[in-house]
Design a protein that fits this description.
Elements: H1 2-16, H2 18-21, H3 25-50, H4 58-76, H5 80-95, H6 106-126, H7 128-131, E1 144-145, E2 148-149, H8 153-175, H9 178-188, H10 190-195, H11 200-226, H12 236-249, H13 254-270, H14 278-290, H15 296-317
Antiparallel strand pairs: 1-2
Helix pairs in contact: 3-8, 3-11, 3-12, 3-13, 4-5, 4-6, 4-11, 5-11, 9-11, 12-13, 12-15, 13-15
């Protein structure tokens, strides 16, 4: 427990130092996008890792949160904190539309969430009066707090970092709560969980609600971060990207989800110099990383650390060589 706390504090300090170590505003911008991706990966991990629900609709909740926050900021000049919270809440309320499908299982449930994502994207794309249509939303105001502008890349980075840390702590708490244990039981055996008195439909609905709120908050952050929204940023591909983050990083691991999000966001930027081969190389890397199994890269790293610690301790306990006279 103590080593885990020290590791978390070390990672937090390292992430806090990123804007100080990287003076390039573009890369600070990309790191902020990675943190937004981390929040999205956490929301997917709650569904896939804890409850065993494969959802292809997180991109829709992400878009609902983004458009809600942007609309409130543009039309009603709502402060950015309240706009982001409102985006998360509206995304959570929209997840209640999925209540009729929570009784489905496996691929049937995944296809149903895909249908929801497609409908939401079509609304964003065609309802000009609500979302700006294919043009999207422009001139989203820069965030301010008590009269101070937070529109700089460093300020936005720290906002994203604080939000991602808060979501991590909340979901980590959920994972070790009665609610989290119930979700784990559902993912392992629904019939056994139902026989134990767990209301499957209610717990799945709550799981969708919490995950949608987190995705909506990420969408609100993205709206103020980019200050321009395009409906194609929230299409079906975005939901696939979020799912890939969890598969690469490791199912049932919040740190793994964060690692997967960092890979999905940062690797394509690092491969940008390869030109037209960038997406091809990234696709090959995704296949290789996904081949790590359900543990993902986080599981491989944990096993590697344990191996090094075990063999390192054994080497230290070995009798030292004695010099011959």
């Amino acid at each position: 427990m103590r080593s885990s706390l020290i590791a978390r504090l070390g990672v937090a300090l390292l992430l806090a130092a990123v804007p100080l170590l990287q003076s390039n505003a573009y890369w600070v911008h990309i790191f902020s996008l990675a943190l937004i991706g981390v929040i999205l990966a956490f929301s997917q991990q709650l569904l896939v890792g804890m409850a065993g629900i494969v959802s292809l609709g997180q991109g829709a909740f992400y878009g609902i949160g983004a458009y809600t926050a942007a609309s409130l900021a543009i039309s009603f000049h709502v402060p950015f904190v309240l706009a982001i919270v409102a985006g998360g809440l509206l995304a959570g309320l929209s997840s209640l539309l999925l209540i009729p499908i929570v009784r489905l299982k496996g691929s049937s449930l995944a296809v149903a969430t895909l249908g929801f994502a497609i409908i939401v994207h079509l609304v964003m794309l065609n309802e000009d009066w609500l979302t700006g249509g294919s043009i999207g939303m422009i001139d989203i105001p820069a965030p301010t707090l008590f009269g101070f502008s937070l529109g700089g890349e460093k300020a936005l980075y720290y906002i994203c970092l604080i939000t991602a840390a808060a979501v991590f702590l909340a979901f980590d708490r959920i994972a070790h709560s009665r609610f989290g244990r119930a979700l784990t039981a559902i993912s392992q055996d629904e019939e056994a969980a139902r026989a134990s008195g767990i209301n499957i439909a209610v717990y799945k609905s709550k799981c969708f609600l919490v995950a949608a709120i987190a995705s909506g908050i990420a969408g609100g952050l993205y709206a103020f971060h980019s200050r321009y929204l395009n409906p194609n940023d929230f299409d079906f591909q975005k939901s696939i990207d979020i799912l890939i983050m969890v598969v690469i990083g490791g199912i049932r691991s919040l740190p793994g989800a964060a690692l997967g999000a960092a890979i999905v966001v940062l690797i394509p930027e690092l491969l940008r110099a390869s030109g037209e081969f960038r997406l091809l190389l990234f696709g090959v890397m995704v296949i290789v990383f996904a081949g790590a199994g359900s543990k993902g890269l986080s599981g491989i790293l944990v096993d590697l650390v344990k191996y090094i610690a075990q063999h390192g301790q054994r080497w230290l306990l070995q009798k030292p060589w004695t010099a011959r006279l």
